[in-house]
Amino acid sequence: MLREMYNGKIIPCERHYKYTAEQQKIVAQIDAEEKYFAEKLTPEDCERFMKLPDLYSELSTSCESDSFSYGFSVGMLLMADVMDEVGPILDGDKPR
Q1: What's the DSSP call for residue 18?
Q2: Would you say residue 15 lies in a domain?
Q3: 3-state secondary structure of 8
Q4: In this predicted structure, what is the pLDDT of residue 40?
Q5: Is residue 11 part of a domain?
Q6: Whole-number pLDDT of residue 96
Q7: What is the pTM assigned to this prediction?
Q8: Sequence-distant (≥ 6) Cβ neighbours of residue 62 within 8 angstroms
């Protein structure tokens, strides 16, 4: 896996996500609501309104990046702790 990440075959931030049927219904509802409000707004207000999804996406990407980094770090700390415990066992010593 490390080699695949190094060679660019695995890029965590480029995860391809496929919506479930339920999620597709929600996306359709969001699209319908955006269209409804876009028709009611002035052209200037509509332009601003249509930028909102991009801002939400940018925030979501930032939060996902933070979550990935935090989760990876916690996983590495857990692995280090396990290795501290496993070392003596592999050496034939009793665990602490």
Answers
A1: -
A2: no
A3: coil
A4: 94
A5: no
A6: 57
A7: 0.57
A8: none
Of residues 25 and 86, the one with the higher pLDDT is 25
Count of the separate structural domains present in the chain: 1
For residue 29, what are the contacts with CB-CB under 8 A and spacing of at least 6?
none
Domain that holds residue 72: 21-90
Task: Give the Cα separation of 70 and 12 in Å (integer).
Answer: 14
Half-sphere exposure (CA, 13 Å, Cβ side) for 73?
A: 6
Q: Residue 47 falls within a domain, yes or no?
A: yes
Q: Which two tokens stand for residue 67?
A: 């979550």
Q: Which residues contact 68 (CB under 8 A, 6 or more apart)?
A: 12, 13
Q: Can you list the alpha helix ranges (DSSP code H) found in the chain? A: 2-6, 21-40, 43-90
Q: Is residue 6 part of a domain?
A: no
